[in-house]
């Protein structure tokens, strides 16, 4: 083990820190703000163009993308920096998304080539991948037991929702619907699957449990859904502006508010929803907090997002499956200061934390692609 690595000294960072890509395109793990005595450590060495880090569910590994002389690659590194493995490399495809299995042993990589493809990899068997599904669009999530993957894909020019058993490829896929609708990422919560079917007139949110299909809500347009930390509630966005609250146990929906938003996340409890909103007149984005009990809406911050932040917010239904950007009362994001205050303004892409209870913002580091450890279950 290199002399500069002391895993015990970094235990607190592993549990409460974050990872990001610095201005030198290398991967770092950090605790606290560098300007206030925070400490960081490089996790990648002599890599080119590191991007899109993501923590494993057990918070022991971090996956990230990078470029090699032969093309794009995907590697994993231990959070203590002791071991690193290159899981896959490609010469004709580009990795654009990764999703860990619940046991932190496997991951599904979404690859862009002639079409979108989902490949399965085991971190203990680098280079050995298996094609699971292809199509465009292509969205997926793991079952809680880690034995199956729920896919929303295109088959024979028709959309389809199906369950694929990943351990034994001989087990046939289970088709659920041949007309899933505008619900980018179906959700699998315990033994219940939530998805949307579209008709010529409307969209219907369904729940499937024990082969019993229940209509939860009927509406129009795009559906998006995020479960709360307790998994007892779900925030459901309809048509990009009507936000509703789902009682998961009773499978009932009640409206919260009508407000335009791009993405939304739960705080560490079931009491707060944080969402982003595009501010076209000012050329920036805004963060808001919605208190669930009082339904009070508070504007928190205006910011200029980095390109990576815009991408993750735009595809947040998929990125929320990999990890939420909140920790305690803090929201983490990458962007530029939108206040134009010369004292605080920096033209560099930066990582910020924003306290969504008191609105206090802090510059943590210069960089982007910030990722937080997973919440303890």
What does this structure look like?
With 377 residues, the protein is mainly β. Helices cover 5% and strands 53% of the residues. It is built from three helices and 31 strands. Strands 1, 2, 3, 24, 25, 26, 27, 28, 29, 30 and 31 form an eleven-stranded antiparallel β-sheet that branches. Strands 4-5-6-7 form a four-stranded antiparallel β-sheet, with no helix packed on it. It has a four-stranded antiparallel β-sheet with strand order 8-9-10-11, with no helix packed on it. It is globular and about 55 Å long.
Q: Which sheet architecture does the biggest sheet show?
A: 11 strands, antiparallel
Please state the average pLDDT score.
83
Helical content stands at under 10%
Strand content: over 45%
Termini Cα gap = 32 Å
> Structural class of the helices, strands and pairings?
mainly beta
Computed Rg: 21 Å
- Global shape: globular
SS elements, strand count: 31
In short:
With about 375 residues, the chain is mostly beta strands. It has helices spanning about 10-15, 305-315, 315-320; strands at about 20, 25-30, 40, 50-55, 60-70, 70-80, 85-90, 95-100, 105-110, 115-120, 130-135, 140, 150-155, 160-165, 175, 185-190, 190-200, 205-210, 210-220, 225, 235-240, 240-245, 250-260, 265, 270-280, 285-290, 295-305, 325, 330-335, 350-355, 360-370.
What characteristics describe this protein?
single chain, 377 residues, mainly beta, eleven-stranded antiparallel β-sheet, four-stranded antiparallel β-sheet, 3 helices, globular, disordered N terminus
